[in-house]
Amino acid sequence: xxxxxxxxxxxxxxxxxxxxxxxxxxxxxxxxxxxxxxxxxxxxxxxxxxxxxxxxxxxxxxxxxxxxxxxxxxxxxxxxxxxxxxxxxxxxxxxxxxxxxxxxxxxxxxx
Length: 111
Prior knowledge:
Layout lengths: L8 H19 L3 E6 L8 H4 L3 E8 L8 H11 L1 H6 L1 E9 L1 H5 L10
């Protein structure tokens, strides 16, 4: 099977901005923390395909009343096109503003 051509560094650098823009547009989050962890997966299948590995922590009122699976579905729907072209793996923590105010574990509070 042929190995896909490497994704240019300039295109890789724009991935976080494209991800943030898609999430802002569809989920109107109050907070987004996006970490590119692609360097931790060098040699992994997704890396060879030129796609990235990301960790996302996002706060949105749109998650209110939804269980984790529903929240993840909203995120994946928001990023559908990017999942095909830019994202190989996405680790998601999705919270509501109320959960953050109550100090729900898993989200780093701004100092």
